[in-house]
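Subject: sequence -> structure tokens, single chain

Hey, anyone have a minute? Need the predicted structure for the following. Not urgent.
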Amino acid sequence: METQKKSFIEKYVKIIVVLAVVAGSSSGIFGSLIEAPSMAIGFWRLTMGLPFFAIPVLAKKRDTLKAISRKDLLWTFGAGACLFAHFFTWFNAVKMTNIASAVVLAALHPLVVLVITVFVLKKKVGMRPVMGIILALLGGVMIAGLDYQQLSTGNFAGDIMAFLAGLFMGLYFAIGNEVRKNVPGQTYVFLVFFACWICFAIGMIATGTPALGYSTSDYLYLIGLTLVCQIGAHAVFNLCFGHVDSLYVSTWESGESVFAIILGIIFLGQFPDSGEIIGCAIVVIGLLYYNYYTGLAEKEK
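Reply:
Had a minute. Here:
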């Protein structure tokens, strides 16, 4: 019996996920350069990113849209709403509380995915992979430099926003992992981005945020944000679902802070202190530990 040839994404999916995390880690750099309000940033990154998937799907793959069940369609739009909610709560969190608290609380999404995986989807997750996840999260705490004094000086409402950002990211990943089993990648990305765009369009109208009138540099940085983060990270994450578990994607995404520090050194000349370096090492060890034991578990299947 002839075995089916694996696609490029399926063959190198774990490497692609890591590269997507690297791309996503640049969002902080773009965010620091763009002066437009967060609602406008979200609206434009979706407006610019949507055509890359809408045009090919509507032109050549309309049959895939017709084949989607109502249940999968609703869940897909739910994922898009969760993506919008993640962006909205995260952008507000970093304005309402200190960055250390926001980073750590928002990075808890692997625990959200872990809970859904074990208790909702009834999937078995070994203790060693879980230890890798916890180790990576602890490293993230060290990178953020979170201590009691910093937490106490943060704004409680902002901390809640950051926690919700992590919660919505976890839901977004978990839903995508399940729906992608039935919906083709390109079609799923188009629908998720479309749903998220609708939410941002409503948000723009509701808040009276102007879409135009920003500086030329803002629009150039928005193009970069769209290509690198919206397409290079979020679109790729969704394409990878169906080939790798959402817990794997979420765990590696929690290591985004390490890559953000590396990019900060390269592009902004911001060098980490000793605590951040130790935290980076712990995150890397945790992710490698997680990756090694999930790999062993897959071989044993």
